[in-house]
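User: I'm putting together notes for a lab meeting next week and I want to include a structural view of one of the chains we've been expressing. I don't have a solved structure, so I'd like a prediction I can at least talk through. The sequence is below, exactly as it appears in our construct file.
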Amino acid sequence: MSNQSWLDERRVDLIAMRVEATSRGPWAASIEGEDHTSGSSCIITADGSMDLSGASDHDIAFIANARQDVPYLVAELRRLAAILESR
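Assistant: Thanks for the context. Below is the predicted structure for the 87-residue chain, given as structure tokens.
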């Protein structure tokens, strides 16, 4: 194993902790005009919904998908770092 650190574990741990502190997933964007015809665009969570005043539909889709994307990316970073560190 190399002494070189391939991953800032502290930073990745903090990112993972922020994800865990959020409402349960999965989250989904509910966009007016695409997913429904009246009301405002929002994020649907396992526990309800949240409105984001001033957010664009793209912002809402990004934030909603981040709840699933960030844990995936954290796991992938750790997997790749383990491969690199085992060399």
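A couple of points you could mention at the meeting. The CA atoms of residues 26 and 45 lie 6 Å apart. The two ends are 6 Å apart (CA to CA).

User: Perfect, that's what I needed.
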